[in-house]
Write a structure and sequence with these properties.
Oligomer: single chain
CATH architecture of the largest domain: 3-Layer(aba) Sandwich
Distance between the termini: 16 Å
Helix content: 25-40%
Order of helices and strands: EEEHEHHEHEEEHEHEHEEHH
Strand order of the largest sheet: 9-8-10-7-11
CATH superfamily of the largest domain: Periplasmic binding protein-like II
Low-confidence stretches: 1-33
Number of helices: 9
Strand content: 15-25%
CATH topology of the largest domain: D-Maltodextrin-Binding Protein, domain 2
Radius of gyration: 19 Å
Mean pLDDT: 88
Structural class: alpha/beta
CATH class of the largest domain: Alpha Beta
Shape: globular
Length: 268
């Protein structure tokens, strides 16, 4: 089979990092412990917190059983199936999710929101093994005259609050006027309305906007060695985290991961 071209900058996270966790078990009986072995919010269900919309990772979808679809949601749904669990999704703010506040409050079992694994976040969150790699990018109007991050002095640049995109813009575009938004659901309409002149955020998300509207284009991408992980309350969900890692490896091994990847992250 001819290899498909994949979105620039996205690579599968190294399979070697997904070593099976010794005490985790997948398969039919993984989620059916008599005493709710994973300490789930609701026995029999994997409750997922995610900041929606953030296509192609999180998408509102009334046709999906959970009401949501996208790469993260479908991948975690496949993982939940391996653990004999149903999936339920709650839409929450990203800043509270990435800080660990939402997870510590017991609102959900796992966070799935294209969240980059970082040392800062590890202080408050436990992460699964990496499940995908990505990079940052700069999206502008095609007729803006902006060709690189060096052209952003004095320009209103949209970023999502609490993200690595915001951090990258702060460090590398000191002359830009950064405008924070809670999610891409506000960033993208602000761009279309002319309230901001650029968006600096994850490349796959900007890629969706570029493909949906030819008036916009990605002018630069930035290697940041980012990998996404599923997030868990610090020190409270070890059994679940290990089971998710094990099931994630199973999903890779049986080809389900590649199918989901091609559906959401491959160039069409």
């Amino acid at each position: 089979m001819r290899r498909r071209n994949i979105i620039a900058g996205i690579a599968l996270a190294a399979t070697a990092t997904l070593a099976l966790a010794g005490c985790a078990t997948g398969g039919e009986d993984a989620g059916s412990g008599d005493d709710n072995e994973y300490g789930l919010v609701e026995p029999g269900k994997l409750t997922v917190c995610s900041d929606v919309p953030y296509p192609p990772f999180e998408i509102e979808d009334s046709s999906a059983p959970s009401g949501y679809s996208g790469f993260d949601i479908e991948l975690l749904g496949a993982v939940a199936e391996k653990l004999d669990l149903e999936i339920a999704v709650q839409d929450v703010g990203f800043d509270a999710l990435q800080s660990g506040t939402t997870l510590a409050a017991g609102t959900c079992d796992v966070g799935a929101s294209a969240m980059t694994i970082s040392d800062e976040r590890k202080a408050n969150i436990d992460f699964s093994d990496p499940y995908v790699d990505s990079m940052q990018s700069l999206l502008v109007r095609a007729d803006s005259g902006i060709e690189s991050i060096d052209d952003l002095d004095g320009k209103n640049v949209g970023v999502q609050q609490g993200t690595t995109g915001e951090s990258y813009a702060t460090e590398n575009a000191p002359g830009a006027v950064l405008v924070q938004y809670p999610s891409d659901g506000e960033l993208w309409p602000a761009m279309q309305a002319g309230q901001i002149e650029a968006i600096l955020q994850d490349q796959p998300v900007n890629y969706v906007h570029e493909q949906d509207d030819s008036a916009y284009k990605i002018v630069e991408t930035y290697e940041t060695n980012e990998s996404y992980g599923f997030a868990f309350a610090k020190g409270e969900k070890d059994a679940l985290r290990e089971a998710v890692d094990s099931a994630l490896q199973e999903v890779r091994d049986d080809g389900t991961y590649q199918e989901i990847f091609d559906k959401y992250l491959a160039v069409k």
